[in-house]
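Technical note accompanying the year-one report. For the benefit of new consortium partners, we illustrate the data format agreed upon in the data management plan: each record pairs a sequence with a structure-token string. No post-processing was applied to the example shown here.
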Amino acid sequence: MSDAPFLFDRLCVIGIGLIGSSILRAARSYGLARTLVAADLSQKVIGRVEELGIADVATTDFGAAVTDADCVILCVPSGAFGVVTEIIAPHLKQGAIISDTGSVKGAVVAQMSPFLPVGVHFIPAHPVAGTEHSGPDAGFAELFENRWCIFTPAEDIDAEALARYRAFWERLGSRVECMTPEHHDLVLAVTSHVPHLIAYNIVGTADDLEAVTQSEVIKFSAGGFRDFTRIAASDPTMWRDVFLNNKKAVLEVLGRFSEDLAYLQRAIRWGEGDKLFDLFTRTRAVRRSIIDQGQETAAPDFGRPHGKQ
């Protein structure tokens, strides 16, 4: 545990899946809060939280969970932020920081803002980290190390609250950057949302073919397809809500992708190998840049640590 002082006296995390349980584990490991509170609608999840010992208090009562909390982080599906915020709003104390971990920011801000009382500090955030696993057992304290956490605060956000919350994520191991919700959603549509949609689609296509090929698609899966299946194994509820709540940016990027795919289709049809080679050379350089910036590793397992309790 870190010798640095607690950043929060009482930290409440609502929604104890991969991200929520990782925040709790990391906050415990790095000594970021005196009291850790876990809240989830599922009594089964709460029971597992108690078994794992990753929180001091575990409850299905959201109002009680946020009472007296200095910081509240919502780790729920993108479509649920408004409902949860309406429930907890009357119980938030003055001066509390409230945030989220949603990968869509425009819709989250629109859902949460109408219910937040005056005197609380709303700092929307998105830790760009994760695995294909979900649930309280999937989390591990190191998930956020050397990863980005994107903040999309309002221009008039309290500077002291923003600095405090930035320090929280930096002590979790993240690098923090601020941008507008609209810009965030476009960036993530390119880097995450559309790639996931492509993965879901190609794996679905293979599943349709599997019946025709008598399991050969699965039996002879090459590395590329295996990587797609890892992405396509992500939480279906979360990703359904992501696409419905980031519709504009996803459709914009998907349109561009479709145009570029048609370009490749023509190049293959007409044997234009120079066009294929130029694209493959350019995309190879992108991969190397990601590794150079520490956002990936060339290791065979991509350097992703296994979940820890």
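Partners are asked to follow this layout when depositing records. The mean pLDDT is 89.
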